[in-house]
Every structure is written in structure tokens, then in C-alpha cells.
Amino acid sequence: AEVTDEDVTERLDALRERFGPLVGVDRPAAAGDFVGLARKAEIDGEEVASVSGVSYQIGSGNMLEGLDEALTGLSADETTTFNAPLACGEHEGKEAAVTVTATSVNQRYLPEADDDFAQLASEFDTLEELTADLCEQVASIKTSNQAVAARDELLKALNDAVEIPVPAGAVEAEVHRHLESEGRLEDDTHRAEVTVEATDALRNQILLDTLAEQLEIKVAQNELLEYLVSASRQYGMDPNQFIQSLDQGGQIPAMVGEVARSKSLAVALRQIEVKDTAGNVVDLTEFIGSDDEDAAADEPVEDVAGEPVEEALVDDSAAPAAEAPVEDDEKDATEA
Q1: Which one-letter DSSP state was computed for residue 333?
Q2: Are the C-beta atoms of residues 223 and 263 closer than 8 Å to each other?
Q3: pTM of the entire predicted model
Q4: Is 169 left (phi over 0), alpha (psi -120 to 50) or beta?
Q5: Which of 80, 105, 123, 229 is deepest in the core (most CB within 10 A)?
Q6: How far apart, in Å, are the Cα atoms of 15 and each of 2, 114, 163, 235?
Q7: What is the pLDDT of residue 308?
Q8: d(CA 193, CA 232)
């Protein structure tokens, strides 16, 4: 895990983009521009979807297949039509004729990277201090990614080492539930993809449940609470309401199982040696904890007595305050 000047510059530029204004330009749209657009989709001449007043950055590729190419070269108030499969809704995957109008073309202007910008975008007074902090951030992210890579390599090694019979009925039931929720029960191609995914997921679950049992993993109250609070943020719910809804649906034991599976990999990682590509031993204690920390943890959830599980967990004083969203490259390491 090495931090390069390019890594720091990339992070600084991303910060500049967050504070850079969008300015309208009188020219055809190009890669990186933000285009205000109105869009409608038709199947067999019937309008099935429409949207207007949205801004889309050319090159982001997060809306419709072919949209980047269609918008490139369009000036404000110009319209074009192209064919593309719809990405969501009841007609997801179906080919549609898409008409898109560019209502505006805007370019992001980046503020100068200087001391004034450092004071605007951070708690630092100078660009030098801000750059040093960004360097530390990149180093932390890359180290986190090493931990994620180590986890994935261990899981792969365990899967390769054992033959795990996966119940066909359980896989079929999960595939049916998934396709039914998407309204794609007759899509054989997608069924094949989902079957592979469901089989792999169930195989990993069986493997990690067995690992957790062999390692005698116990889930502490604080570990479960931390997991549930984090999950509640992903759903945009109050932690107390989220935990109560899970308990009413009988889902708390399933959440305990999720934490136990994750913890089993962390404990297993403590029992092996992890090296980087240069042959150096990597210390993952920051991410996987230590046996001493486990010994000092709260009582296991299954040992809690005298009150329902959700009452032991739902406590405003115990729930951590909401944190700012993490960047995409940090998220995977955080979830690990």
C-alpha cells in the first residue's frame, strides 16, 4: 500500500469539484459536462417513462445505456433519439425508443488549489496542511483495502479447500423470490445469473456458519448494536425504530447470525499470516481486533437475560451519533 502524488492529487481534485460552481456554456456538450435534460421513453409508440429537470454528467454512465453518446455533441435545446434497454421500473430490461432534450450545458469550474481554498474546504489554514491530511486519508483507505483483500483471499481459500453441498431447494426458493420481486419470472437469462449468485451466497453462508461454530464465536451486545445502527443509516431510519421493526418481524436472530459470520472471518484472520506483495507481514489488528478485546467485550447476546433483546439494545445513550457518509472507496472496507 503506497501513497503516490497522483493519489493525493486525485483526492484534492475531488474536493475541488465539491466546491466548484457549475457555469453554463454556449457550446456542444462534451465529456465531463453537466447536462440538464428532459427524457421520455416509448415502447411500441406508447410512452412508458419520462423525467425532466435532472442534471446528468456525461461519462458517469449511471443512468441509461447509450445516454453518454447521445448527449455528446448536443447544444442547449437540441433533441436526439436513441434505443436502449430501460434500467428500472416495470419495463426494466425492455428495449425502448428514448428521446432526450438537452435543456442546458454546464461546465464545472474548479477553484484554485491555494491557502484560501484550504480554509474554505477544511479546518486547515494552508494548502500544505490540507495536502498532508489528504495523504493520511489515502494511506488509511489503502490500508483498509488491504484488510478487505485479506478477508476475500481467506474466504476464497476456505471455499477452495472444502466441498460444500448446497440445498437445491433453498437456492430455487431464493431465486424465485428474487425474480418475483422484480417481475422477471420468465427471464431465463436473468434466472441463470441469479441462480449462480444465490448458490454462491448460500455456500458462503453455510461455510461461515460452520466456521463460527468451530471457532465458538459469541456476539456481544455492543457488536450487534454497532451493526444495527450502521444498517439503520443505510435505510435512513432512526436506530430505535429500525431495531424495533426488526424485532417485531422476528429478524434479530438473523442479524446476530450476520454479525457472527463477519466476526468468524475476523477471528480466523488472526490465526493466519497475511503478507503484502513485497512479502511484508501486514498487521490487521486495527480492523480485526484481538482476542484480548473479545475477552473484555460485553456479555454475548444469547446470554442476556431478564429483558427482551430489543430492550437491551434500544438505548438512545448507547446509539452512536450519525456519521457523515463515507466515500465509495471507503465503504467496502467499513462494511468489512
Answers
A1: H
A2: yes
A3: 0.64
A4: alpha
A5: 105
A6: 21, 13, 47, 26
A7: 44
A8: 29
φ, ψ for residue 232, nearest 5 deg: -65, -35
CB 86 within 8 A of CB 48: yes
Beta bridge partners of 41: 49, 98
Q: Phi and psi of 103, rounded to 5°?
A: -85, -20
pLDDT band at 324 (very low <50, low <70, confident <90, very high): very low
- Residue 117: other Cβ atoms inside 10 A: 18
What is the DSSP annotation of 228-246?
Answer: HHHHHHHTT--HHHHHHHH
Nearest to 174 by CA among 152, 211, 199: 199
d(CA 117, CA 125): 9
Look at strands 34-43 and 22-24 and give their pairing. Answer: unpaired
User: Could you tell me which residue, 178 or 293, shows the higher pLDDT?
Assistant: 178
Amino acid found at 268: A
In Å, how far are 110, 234, 253 from 241, measured between CA atoms? Answer: 42, 13, 17
CA distance 23 to 37: 16
DSSP H helical ranges for the chain: 5-19, 67-71, 115-121, 127-161, 168-182, 188-214, 221-234, 239-248, 252-270, 285-288, 291-295, 309-313, 328-335
Main-chain dihedrals φ then ψ at residue 251, nearest 5 degrees: -100, -5
As a dihedral over the C-alpha atoms of residue 252, residue 253, residue 259, residue 260, rounded to 10 degrees, the angle is 170
Mean pLDDT (the chain, rounded): 86
Amino acid at the residue 241: Q
pLDDT bin (cut points 50, 70, 90) of residue 268 is: very high
Report whether 93 contacts 85 (CB < 8 A).
Answer: yes
Q: Which of 129-143, 264-278, 291-305 has the lowest mean pLDDT?
A: 291-305
* Residue (of 226, 254, 229) closest to 239 by Cα position: 229
Q: What is the pLDDT of residue 331?
A: 42
User: Is residue 208 within a helix (H) or strand (E), and if so which, with residue range?
Assistant: helix 188-214
Higher pLDDT, 107 or 328: 107
